[in-house]
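Customer escalation, tier 2.

The customer says the design service returned an amino acid string that "doesn't look like it belongs to this structure." They asked us to rerun it and document both sides in this ticket. The original C-alpha cells are below, unchanged.
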C-alpha cells in the first residue's frame, strides 16, 4: 500500500508545495538526453513532476503509480495530457516497450522484501527493449542518513495557497536494519493533524548489484547523486536478453 502522503487526498496535493526544490531530477533529465532515448517509463511517478518535465521536452512518457490521489494531482499539471498515466506498479504494466525506465527519489527503497524487489525489476525488464536502460537511486546505508531525520532537523512551516499554514516534521520510529521506519507529521492551522508512516529498505551497493544480476541485468555504471553527494548511489543497468532467470 502506498504511504498516506501519496494516497491520502488531503496530503497528496501538499507534496509538491513542500518539496518544491526538485533539483534531484536534473541528473535524470540529463541522462535521458545522454542516452538519446525517446520513450521513458517513470516507475513510482507520484505526483508526476518528472514525467511532466520529460513530456515538456518532447519525450514519450508512461507514468505508473499505485496511489490514485497522486495520479489525480499529476493529471492536473502542465503537459500532463502528453503523459500516459497508469494506476499500478511495474508488475501490472500492459505490454509496452521503452528505452529508459526510471525510479527517482526513494522509490527503489519502498520494496521491502526480496520477492517484491525482484518482481519489480523483472516487470521493468519486460518493458525495456534491447539496448534500454534502468536508472534509479538508492541511499547508501553506510552513511546512516536516518540519523538526520529528527524533528529538529526537518521542522518546516509553509503557507500553502488554498490550505494555509502547514507545519511538518519527521521522526524515526524504528531502525531494524536493513529497514528504517519513520513518520511525517502534518499539522494544519485548523488544528487538524495527519501523519504518514514510511518504511525504506537500505541495500548496500553489493546487494543492489547482486539483485540486478539475479533479475537479468548488467550494471553499466554506478554514479553519485549530485543533490546528495556521497550519500546516494545512482545505478545504471541494462537488461540482458536470451538468458532465462
Amino acid at each position: 500500500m502506498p504511504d498516506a502522503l501519496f494516497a491520502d487526498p488531503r496530503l497528496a496535493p501538499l507534496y509538491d508545495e513542500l518539496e518544491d526544490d526538485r533539483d534531484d531530477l536534473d541528473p535524470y533529465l540529463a541522462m535521458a538526453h545522454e542516452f538519446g532515448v525517446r520513450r521513458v517509463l517513470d516507475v513510482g511517478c507520484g505526483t508526476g513532476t518528472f514525467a511532466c518535465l520529460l513530456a515538456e521536452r518532447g519525450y514519450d512518457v508512461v507514468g505508473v503509480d499505485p496511489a490514485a490521489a497522486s495520479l489525480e494531482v499529476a493529471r492536473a499539471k502542465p503537459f500532463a495530457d502528453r503523459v500516459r498515466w497508469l494506476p499500478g506498479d511495474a508488475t501490472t504494466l500492459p505490454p509496452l516497450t521503452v528505452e529508459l525506465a526510471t525510479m527517482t527519489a526513494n522509490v527503489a527503497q519502498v520494496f521491502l522484501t526480496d520477492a517484491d524487489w525482484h518482481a519489480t525489476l523483472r516487470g521493468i525488464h519486460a518493458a525495456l527493449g534491447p539496448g534500454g536502460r534502468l536508472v534509479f537511486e538508492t541511499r547508501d546505508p553506510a552513511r546512516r542518513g536516518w540519523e538526520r531525520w529528527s524533528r529538529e532537523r526537518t521542522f518546516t512551516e509553509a503557507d500553502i495557497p488554498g490550505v494555509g499554514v502547514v507545519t511538518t516534521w519527521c521522526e524515526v520510529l524504528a531502525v531494524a536494519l536493513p529497514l528504517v521506519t519513520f513518520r511525517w507529521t502534518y499539522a494544519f492551522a485548523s488544528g487538524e493533524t495527519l501523519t504518514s508512516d514510511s518504511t525504506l529498505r537500505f541495500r548496500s551497493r553489493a546487494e543492489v548489484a547482486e539483485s540486478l544480476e539475479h533479475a537479468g541485468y548488467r550494471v553499466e555504471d554506478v554514479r553519485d547523486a549530485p543533490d546528495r553527494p556521497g550519500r546516494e548511489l545512482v545505478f545504471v543497468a541494462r537488461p540482458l536478453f536470451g538468458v532465462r532467470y
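Tier 2 assessment: The sequence is consistent with the input. The first helix runs from residue 4 to 7. The longest strand covers residues 164-176. Sent an explanation to the customer and offered a walkthrough call.
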